[in-house]
Amino acid sequence: MTAAPIEPSLFPAAPTPPAAAPPSAAARPTILYFGNDWAAENRTSSHHVARWLAKRYRVIYVESPGLRAPKGTGRDVRKLLSKVGLALRGPRPTPEGLQVQTLLQIPLHGSELVRRANRHLIRMTLKLLMRLHGVKRPLTWFVVPHLSSVVGELDDLFSVYYCIDDYAALPDVDPVAVRAMDDSLTRKADLVFVASATLLESKRALNPNTHVSAHGVDYDHFVKAQDPALAIPDDVAQLQRKGPIIGFFGLIERWIELSLVRYLAEQRPDWTFLMIGRIAVPESEVPRLPNIHFTGRRPYETLPAYGKAFTAAIIPYHLTQQVVNSNPLKLREYLAMGKPIVSVSTPEIEKFRDLVSIAHTREEYLAHLDRAVAHGLTAEQIKRQTDAAANMTWDANLTRVMALVEAQLAERNR
After folding, report:
1. Which of 2, 155, 163, 317 has its CA 20 to 30 A from that of 413?
2. How far, in Å, are 180, 212, 302 from residue 172 at the CA level?
3. Cα–Cα distance between 251 and 297 in angstroms, integer?
4. The whole model's pTM is what?
5. Which residues of the chain have pLDDT under 70?
6. What are residue 332's phi and psi, to 5 degrees?
7. What is the pLDDT, as a whole number, of residue 149?
8. Domains in the chain: ranges and CATH
9. Gap between the Cα atoms of 30 and 62, Å rounded
10. 4 DSSP 8-state letter
């Protein structure tokens, strides 16, 4: 089968940016960036995009409440109380050069009364924030769908919806309410980006000015896994002595097929299955076998060192609607690490089928892992993976994104 070419980013209908030089940093608008928790346990594409923008624009990062209602667990209660405290503190600077403001909102999106109250609370908070920072005519940038009421209420110069997920298909959300908010923001935004081509048609039906922007990768960070001098953490070094390590890192949510991990671990008891990340599923769903090690969350800075110990890396997704419409960031990170990768099949992963072993059954998944453990990757295969990742950096992708944003801003201001 002929491999499909890998496209670092897709802009099938994007106009060519004007030849005129982009505006100077002083002339660029302030960006009000609406994202998830700045101190979230996983570094998501939202964080990567905001960090990149903050090097080139003045960015105020507005932490928006989550899409799901709190469950009353100890973790949720602590998180809610923390958000209240952070909101009352006001804007706080970060080493990356952003100002972060926590936004208070009642997380019950299914209630019209609550949504109306939230709209008033949000507008009041944001207008106060803008006065405090002397912000006029901001560029509003949304990575979450539930703040569509903000568009047009802040005298925005321009609005961008950078949609990185099928939010209504996420676990534990109100799908009807979230779909309505997602659709509303898509219609109202001046420019929409989606992370996967599978979302393009439905979004373009609501807003013709929609384009695909695939995720980037923090290449310089994850390629460190190939550095012979990088030390492997002690907890993993001990596991290495037992045999092959099959590794995964990321949030362990319902979109991870833990039953597949259990099957693989049962079939290969001499291998270690290393699952790095916070467990967000009930304990009853977590397979507890001697050769499956759940480490919990590890700092982002240490992931290449852990990844260096992987004999092979896995993407064991459960094929939900959300997963089918996703564009896995970890795939690009695994590529940069130069590790054999075995994954389930999704539309975006299929684009990498010349670099990734893709399985459609449990038995096929195990067979791919057997080959990866037995043979690894050749130097030429590692180079092909590394070269592919090097062409998909956040800088390359977001340079194209902002060229389109600034071109449309320039056209509007003519």
Report:
1. 163
2. 16, 27, 30
3. 8
4. 0.86
5. 1-27, 41, 66-90, 105-111
6. -70, -35
7. 87
8. 25-216+393-412 (3.40.50.2000), 219-390 (3.40.50.2000)
9. 13
10. P
Whole-number Cα distances in Å, 198 to 194, 218, 325: 9, 24, 6
Confidence (pLDDT) at 41: 65
Concatenated DSSP letters of 188-230: H-SEEEESSGGGHHHHHHH-SSEEE----B-HHHHGGGG-TTP
The Cα angle at residue 44 between residues 29 and 42, in degrees rounded to 5: 135
CB count within 10 Å of CB 151 equals: 18
In this prediction, residue 66 carries a pLDDT of: 62
The Cα-based distances of 403 to 12, 193, 406, 409 in angstroms read 14, 13, 5, 10
Longest dimension (CA), the chain: 67
101-159 residue pLDDT tens:
888 766 655 567 777 777 788 888 898 889 988 999 999 999 999 888 899 899 999 99
Q: How far is CA 32 from the centre of its chain?
A: 19
Determine how β-strand 312-315 pairs with β-strand 59-63.
unpaired
- Give residue 19's pLDDT: 38
Indicate the residue type of 407.
Answer: A
pLDDT of residue 185: 96
pLDDT of residue 31: 96
**Tokens at 55, concatenated:** 């090097």
- Hey, what amino acid is at 82? S
Give dist(CA 102, CA 79) in Å, integer: 12
Number of CB atoms found within 10 A of residue 208's CB: 9
